[in-house]
């Protein structure tokens, strides 16, 4: 079956000014991976990793410097119309026409895709997005969260088989996150492919069946969510501490105030960590051991400490992830 999305060695150079001089900055470096039809796929990465750049190239809003992107086999540059019809993109930035009402905006967008009499589906969208009572409000009267819902509606007016959401829940309330994920999960169950970028790793862990991690424009991990969770150190030692960790431990620890969390795969490793803290004259309190979650894996991958894991799903920075 044709891939829903195929990124083939996609590169992007931005020309940036630095100290009065122009130079090229590589925002994407030969990114390659495929997303199968029906997948719920998560693209993760810290700020500035290149997620929005990749998605804007996919959406035809930005031009790649090299490589190509196909949507259901249609090249987003050479065959833009067909690629665009298969895609619904919810952009990271809130952009819309403030003079339209919500319903007018959805009708106008339907018209753009050549769909007349779309009101049944528009009503379903309004219902599912908790917007039914806002249908006649002007866009400029809506709160940020409500505008975000309209953007989702706008992306879905033409029932695209591939739905792309760029940080749809950044800065929105818990209620919207719930409503939105229920709706997107339902669409995914009905066969729509979903590509999502998010900062909320617990969301990605709960929703996505497969994940790619992007770091400085390169794919550094590509695997199913469960593989990623298994291949990372499977346990995390958590304790409270007054005082600074010895440098050997500080490097690999996640520290929030007094709380220290360190990945440790075996009982021996756990003993060793505790012994090292005691040797440094420290007294760990409230010691707990828990299973690693996606945030632990993410931090390991981003800090490079997972790159050398034997036979693992984690590529190093020179390697690129392949196809599913
Ligand atoms: N139009 C642009 N001109 C120059 N640099 C840009 C432009 N857009 C993004 N960048 C840079 O490219 C990198 C990736 O940005 P972006 O794709 O927005 O990352 P993400 O969405 O993962 O936070 C960042 O370093 C950003 O500053
Ligand atoms: Mg972004």
From TrEMBL:
Domain ABC transporter intervals: 5-241
Keywords: ATP-binding, Cell membrane, Membrane, Nucleotide-binding, Transport
The keyword Transport is annotated on this UniProt entry: yes
GO molecular function: ATP binding; ATP hydrolysis activity
UniProt xrefs under InterPro entries: AAA+_ATPase (IPR003593), ABC_transporter-like_ATP-bd (IPR003439), ABC_transporter-like_CS (IPR017871), ABC_transporter_ATP-binding (IPR050763), P-loop_NTPase (IPR027417)
CDD domains, sorted: ABC_subfamily_A
Gene3D superfamilies, A to Z: P-loop containing nucleotide triphosphate hydrolases
Entry superkingdom: Bacteria
A Pfam family of this chain: ABC_tran
Keyword Nucleotide-binding carried by entry: yes
Protein name from the UniProt record: ABC transporter ATP-binding protein
